[in-house]
Amino acid sequence: MTSLHKTDFKTYVDQACRAAEEFVNIYYETMDKRRRVLTRLYLDKATLVWNGNAVSGQEALNEFFEMLPSSEFQINVLDCQPVHEQATQSQTTVLVVTCGTVKFDGNKQRYFNQNFLLTAQATPTNTVWKIASDCFRFQDWAS
Amino acid sequence: IAFDVEAPTTLPPCKGSYFGSDDLKALVLRFLQQYYSIYDSSDRQGLLDAYHDGACCSLSIPFGHQNPPSALLLSPPAMRFKLLKHTRLNVVAFLNELPKTQHDVNSFVVDVCAQTVSGGDGRQIPRLGALCIVNDELFVRNATTEEIRKAFVMPAPTPSSSPVPTLSA
Questions:
Q1: What pLDDT digit, counting tens, does each position of B83-123 carry?
Q2: Is B113 in contact with A133 (Cβ distance < 8 A)?
Q3: Mean pLDDT for chain A?
């Protein structure tokens, strides 16, 4: 039983890592170059906490991202973990953590940390990963 | 004739910790205070009560901040799997091997996003009735000069009367 369980967990980890890698490439490229469609990556009821500002729902997210200056993100660290099904009502969920630098137009370059909860949404034809929650912080936000 | 095509250059103001509600704030802060008092003690074995049976834990340390690589810092899958600690016993055994620490609770920034708690080190606490950690992504970086200047200036909260801190799960 134990070895079976281990195999299962390894499969989850591999799936989580593949989803996380692809997600991170798509997310930051969309953020930098195609901001208008960024909210398509979010669930309808997704929540964003951006440097302590809470934004919830597609419409509010759209407004928020429109207001942000154009960006150039660079990711230095990516980490991911599958989230236990007990914590997600059996929704396949992945926790993704990133850190790197961002240069917003008209602002100095800054280090940031960000973490996402991604959930797999099954459609009749395929599986689409969507952001359920997003939390962003400048490392030196207080200064 | 005027056209409003000016691109924004102003960022929204940065705010402190975000908890969502006062109840959540009290619950989460109590948990974190207990968690770090055990973490900073001589024996981290007591953290067993803080983790879910199937908890995961991983550690990221960014290096070369001054000269970030263009490619993602990703380990090959096999190595990555080895670095990811799974199940409560393995997680706490791993934490026990890390060097002794002293945390400045007053420096914490805590964000509660949906049912996710993430601070500088991205910890997640999805079960609220009885708090326990399911996903722990520990992130260690160097402190900035400003952070070092401010650290441990405020006295830590008064320790509880019991000499051995406990977690009420």
A1: 899 999 999 999 999 999 999 999 999 999 865 433 334 44
A2: yes
A3: 90
Residue closest to A49 by CA, chosen among A135, A137, A139: A135
Smallest CA–CA distance, residue A128 to chain B, in Å, is 20
Burial level of B139, CB count in 10 A (0-12/13-18/19+)?
buried
Can you tell me the ipTM of this complex? 0.89
Closest alpha carbon within chain B to A141: B14
The edge-to-edge listing of strands for the beta sheet with B133-139 is B85-86, B51-60, B133-139, B123-124
Per-residue pLDDT tens over the stretch B19-37: 999 988 999 999 999 999 9
Q: Where do runs of H (alpha helix) occur along chain B? A: 22-39, 77-83, 88-97, 145-150
Cβ distance of B58 and A79 shorter than 8 Å: yes
Specify the amino acid at residue A121.
Answer: Q
